[in-house]
Amino acid sequence: MSKPGLPEQVVAAVRAVLGDGAGPFPLHEPEIGPLEAQYINECVGSGWVSTVGPFVDRLEAALGELCGVENVFATSAGTAALHLALAALGVGEGDEVIVPSLSFVATANAVSYTGAIPHFADADEWTLGLDPRALKKHMDEACVMQAGDCRNKATGRRIAAIVVMHAFGHPAEMDALQDVADQWGVPLVEDAAEALGSSYEGKPAGSLSRIAALSFNGNKIATAGGGGAVLTNDAELAARVRHLGSTAKLPHKWEYVHDETGFNYRMPSLNAALLLAQVERLDDFIKRKRRLAARYAASFCSVQGADFMGQPPGARSNYWLNTIRLAVATRPERDAVLEALISDGILARPVWEPLHNLPMFRTCPTADLSVTERLSGQLINLPSSPKLQDLLHD
Ligand SMILES: *Cc1c(COP(=O)(O)O)cnc(C)c1O
Question: 62 alpha carbon to ligand 1 midpoint, in Å?
Answer without folding.
Answer: 20
